[in-house]
Amino acid sequence: MEGSGRRQKPLRDVFEEISAGKTAASDEAVAAATRLCQDLAHYAGRAAELTTAALLYEFLERSKLLERYLDPDSALVEEQARNVAKFLRLVQSAGRALATDRASFFVPHLELLREAGDDPVAADFETSRDQVNVLSIHKAKGLEFPVVFLVHATDERIPGQARLDAFRLPDALARVPVPDRDRHIAEERRLAYVAITRAQNTFYFANAIDYGFQRPSRPSRFIGEALGREPSRMSGPLRVFEELQRFQRPPADADAPLPALGADDVLTISYDAIDDYQRCALLYRFKHVLQIPVLPTPQMTYGLALHEAVRDYLRRKRDGEKPTLADLQAVFRAAWLAEGFINPAHESERFQAGLDALRRFHEQERALPPPELVEQRFSFMLGSDRVVGRWDRVDRADDGAVVVDYKAGADEEGSGRAQRAANESLQLRLYALAHERVYGERPVRTVLHFLESGERGSVAPSEDSIGAVRALVSATAGRIRSRDFLPNPKSLRTCQQCPYHQICPSSLTARSATATAVAG
Question: Taking the complete model, does pTM exceed 0.85, yes or no?
Answer without folding.
Answer: no
